[in-house]
Amino acid sequence: MSTATVTKSIRLSPEEAEELARLSAQTATPEASLMKQWVREGMRTRKIELAVQAYMQRKVDLRGGAAMAGVSYNRFLRELQSRNIVVLEDDQFLERLASLAETFDDEELRLAVQHALNRGSGSMEGRSQE
C-alpha cells in the first residue's frame, strides 16, 4: 500500500460538526481519524451491497461477488446466508428440479422452475430469496 495520501474534504452542518466534536471527545480520537474510519467502513459496506445486488441479479457468481466485494469466498457466502439468500452451488439443480416437476406432474413447481430459469442463464448458480 502506498504511503502517499490525498486530502478530501466534506461540508458538515453546524449540528453535525458539534456531534463529530462530541464523539471525538468521548472516544479521545481525533476527528480526522473518526471520519477516515467511517469512510472506510462505509466503502466496505457499499462494496458488499453492490456485490450482493450483482449476485442476486445473476451478474456474478459467488467467486465474482466475493472479488467484487473485496472479501474471501467464505466471507461472501456467510454474508449471503446472513441475509437469508439461498445459495445453490449445483449448476444442474434447476434442470433436475424441472425433471422432478415433470415426473410428479407438479404444475406449480414447473412454473417456479421456469420462472427461475427465465431470470438468469441457468448455467450460473441458482439463487432466490426466501
Please specify the SSE layout and strand pairing.
Blueprint: H1 14-27, H2 31-56, H3 62-69, H4 73-82, E1 85-87, H5 93-103, H6 107-119, E2 127-129
Antiparallel strand pairs: 1-2
What features would you describe in this structure?
By secondary structure, the protein is mostly helical. It folds into two domains: 13-85, no CATH class; 88-130, no CATH class. It is 63% helix and 5% strand. It is built from six helices and two strands. The chain has helices spanning 14-27, 31-56, 62-69, 73-82, 93-103, 107-119; strands at 85-87, 127-129. Strands 1-2 form a two-stranded antiparallel sheet. Helix 2 packs antiparallel against helix 3 (62-69). It is elongated and about 70 Å long. Mean pLDDT is 88; it is low at 121-130.
Strand content: under 5%
Number of strands: 2
Q: Which whole number gives the mean pLDDT?
A: 88
Radius of gyration: 22 Å
Number of domains: 2
Q: In which range does the helix fraction lie?
A: 55-70%
Order of helices and strands: HHHHEHHE
How is the largest sheet built, in terms of strand order? 1-2
Content-based structural category: mainly alpha
Number of helices: 6
Q: Give unreliable regions as ranges.
A: 121-130
Distance between the termini: 40 Å
Molecular shape: elongated
What characterizes the major β-sheet? Answer: 2 strands, antiparallel
